Each structure stands twice: as structure tokens, then as C-alpha cells.
């Protein structure tokens, strides 16, 4: 079960695959945050989803929105994935699934497989969850839904 719209988003402090430190608190009051969880680098739907966010990134940034991708893959995997697909936003290696668990991006089966569920959260500038998109097989559902919601938040 996912967190719900209107709930306060769980705070986080993470290190990105390029070594930067990020926290939800640093965006509060200035930017919306798209936090998307995906099962694995270099897989068909995950690559399509990441490239969709890549292609929409300039538009989203223009609407005061940052995108952060999260999976259990290692920093090395993320670096290769980002380089191969020209990913301009940060990717986070959540190898112990701590962030995924705090955002309910797990399930019994996903825990056994050591993979996160495919779920995207839009967190508004106040730190509240403004949107939740879930679809294991449709990357477009996530990207299109985020673009429409961010337009309304701007």
C-alpha cells in the first residue's frame, strides 16, 4: 500500500550516485520533488521510465521541480546507466531498501526479490504528497501523470 495524497512525505537524507548529499528538507519551500522508485537499471520498462523523465526534465525544472530516481542498484550501476542514457537528475542507490520502505515502495514479493516496486511520488513545496502513480508495466503512466500534476502545482 502506498502513502496517500495529502500525507506529509517522510523526510530523507541520501547520497546520490555522483556523491552529492540530498535531503527532502532542502527542497521545502522552493521546489516540488518527483521521487520515483524503479526495480532495476537497464531493464526495459525502467529504462523507458527514466528516459521519459529525462526527456521531461527541462520542462519539470522550469516548473520548480526536481526529479530523483531510486532503485536498489549500486552507485556503479547508476553511474553507467546515467551515462548511457544521459540522465541529468540524481539517482540514489537504496541498497538496503530503507528509503523504499519509508515510502512503502516494497511488497512481500519485491522484498524477496530485493527490488522496489514501481511507484512515483510528487511531493509539493510544503513537503506534502501531492500525487502517487503506480503501474508496474506502464512507464508512460508515471511520466505523463507527473507532467500533468506539476502543471497544476505551478
Please describe what this structure looks like.
There is one protein chain. By secondary structure, this protein is an alpha/beta fold. It has a single domain (13-153), classed as 3-Layer(aba) Sandwich (Glutaredoxin), CATH 3.40.30.10. The protein is built from 5 helices and 7 strands; from the N terminus they run E-E-E-H-E-H-E-H-H-E-E-H. The chain has helices spanning 44-61, 75-85, 98-102, 108-113, 139-153; strands spanning 13-15, 21-23, 32-37, 65-71, 91-93, 119-123, 129-134. The strands form 2 sheets. The protein has a 5-stranded mixed sheet with strand order 5-4-3-6-7. A two-stranded antiparallel sheet has the order 1-2. Helix 1 runs parallel beside helix 5. It starts with 12 loop residues before the first strand and ends with a helix. 34% of the residues are buried. The model has no long low-confidence stretch (mean pLDDT 94).
List the helices and strands and how they pair.
Layout: E1 13-15, E2 21-23, E3 32-37, H1 44-61, E4 65-71, H2 75-85, E5 91-93, H3 98-102, H4 108-113, E6 119-123, E7 129-134, H5 139-153
Parallel strand pairs: 3-4, 4-5
Antiparallel strand pairs: 1-2, 3-6, 6-7
Helix pairs in contact: 1-5
Amino acid at each position: 500500500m502506498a502513502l496517500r495524497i495529502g500525507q506529509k512525505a517522510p523526510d530523507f537524507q541520501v547520497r546520490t550516485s555522483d556523491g552529492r548529499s540530498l535531503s527532502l528538507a532542502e527542497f521545502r519551500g522552493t521546489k516540488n520533488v518527483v521521487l520515483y522508485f524503479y526495480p532495476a537499471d537497464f531493464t526495459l520498462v525502467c529504462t523507458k521510465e527514466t528516459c521519459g523523465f529525462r526527456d521531461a526534465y527541462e520542462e519539470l525544472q522550469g516548473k520548480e521541480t526536481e526529479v530523483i530516481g531510486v532503485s536498489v542498484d549500486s552507485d556503479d550501476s547508476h553511474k553507467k546507466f546515467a551515462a548511457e542514457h544521459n540522465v541529468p537528475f540524481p539517482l540514489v542507490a537504496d541498497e538496503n531498501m530503507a528509503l523504499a520502505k519509508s515510502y512503502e515502495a516494497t511488497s512481500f514479493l519485491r522484498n524477496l526479490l530485493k527490488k522496489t516496486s514501481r511507484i512515483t511520488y510528487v511531493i509539493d513545496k510544503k513537503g506534502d504528497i501531492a500525487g502517487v502513480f503506480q503501474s508496474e508495466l506502464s512507464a508512460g503512466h508515471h511520466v505523463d501523470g507527473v507532467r500533468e500534476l506539476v502543471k497544476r502545482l505551478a
